[in-house]
Fold these 2 entries.
Entry 1:
Amino acid sequence: MIVRILGEGQFQVAEDVAAKLTGLDAELDAAVSKQDETAFRAALGAAVELVRESGTSVPDDTFVTADYILPFSDATVGEVRKLLADGTIGSDSIGLP
Amino acid sequence: MSVMKRVSLIFRAKANKALDRMEDPRETLDYSYQQQVEMLTRVRRGVADVATSRKRVELQMTSLQKEVNRRDGQARDALSKGREDLARAALQNKAGLQGQLNDLQGQYSNLQEQEEKLTLASQRLQAKVDAFRTRKETIKATYTAAEAQTRINEAFSGISEEMGDIGLAIQRAEDKTAQMQARAGAIDELLASGALEDHVGGQQDAIQAELDKLGAGNEIESELARMKGEIAAGAPRQIEANANGDSSASGDLSGSEATQAAEQPQAAEQPQAGDGS
């Protein structure tokens, strides 16, 4: 499975890691809906570390889309809520027509 | 739905929308490449902006550190002159400055981190863009328009996710730099207006003024004492004493030069002996 950490690129992770990530993702989701910054930081930190440590970087000449995208490692609940609420990223930031 | 999945869908939707709008996918390969090159310029400018901001904070930290040291020196000076009240005021002032300095240090490491991350992102994008350029030429040369569609979609979606990621990273860095600049501007104004010089007193460095007055008082007393001594001893003897003092001083100097000259050869030989063994 391919996971992107925003600001850090894409990583290929094995299925067992993906399963652990799904667990952490549920924690992230709960933290975002409850606006619990502490829980959010803990879950995000654990997820980012897991991907960095057990994943392998996707080569530069490989063009794939990620199955999962993790927020920036130092993101806040507010930032993620905004991204999810907007449901879009700034049009000029993507640089496509 | 999960957070990670939702974020990935947001990125994917963006790429899909762009793909839907394309009439001849092969032409848009070139258009996309242009956009990527522009993005590279943007991210490099972003790195430079963060670096400028970081350097400014660095300068401010140096100025604040000097102020902190100066207050510390004032406190010691005041204590040695028996003015605990002044020493306390100087230390209070120092604590306020130290707080500002600690705050800046936090901001500084934050900017440093942003700069490192953005630099890596820029390198990653450069590698991706280079790979995209090769891929684009291969697609144009090898495949018919119909065949090319799938390959183009892949390359597009892949690069657009990277671009979206870096676009967000630049935006964040710009936001942080703007916040930092606002704070840095405020501190620059404080430093320039001299307000930092007197955090506590309300007047232009009242502590230093008081210490200067004490210092000047002492100097006047000791000068008076010296003059009294001179008058009591009488002027002619004073001149004679000065002349003696000068000749003995020059004698001392040549004496010490001679000693140094005698010592130098020995000192030069020692390391050579050490090298040989």
Entry 2:
Amino acid sequence: MNRIEINVITGERQVVELTAEEVAQAQASHAEWLAAQPTKEEQIAKLQEQIDALKA
Amino acid sequence: MPLELNGTTGVQGNSGAFVAGTAVASTSGTSIDFTSIPSWVKRITVMFNGVSTNGSSLPMIQIGSGSVDTSGYLTETWQANTTNSNHTNAFVLRGSMNSSLIFSGNFVLTLMGSNVWVGTGIMAQTSAADIVVLGGDKSLSGTLDRVRITTVNGTDTFDAGSINILYE
């Protein structure tokens, strides 16, 4: 896995291999993000509220 | 009054100017970083043309000063008729994602002052009828000098399209 870096001043393009630490950090960040997301049930309940409001 | 347009210092003469980068093929890499953005920049437009990834992790934009910030964002992403979610890790460009999904659009960041950047964007899925509206803000500890386009899990790979930035 790698990251592409473009220097906007010089136009230089570099391909940088991700370090194990960067991958671990990304995975930790992803897990944190997932935990903060509403569940499907919560999303369905929210949509149902909107449907009910439209029907009322 | 003569104006000097320079990619490093911008326009001398207190006038507006656009500096466009060279479009980067988003056909590889888990992230694409635009670095060394000049300190005089007040507005940045990130352009996406037919972009896709090989997975289901949501694409997103992060910014930074010296390094990329991965927290402290106050953003929201609304995907037509499906999802509406808040995020603190980035400006998230999609409400859902899959490996065959292709999207295009612009995301614009403007400097409010005191290193506070406000962003808004519209991303259209070009492979189906679907659109995303997103926005929010991010306070940096210093002058913005980089923009990163990546995915939430950081490991999905870009596999189609091109990305470019315009700064002024």
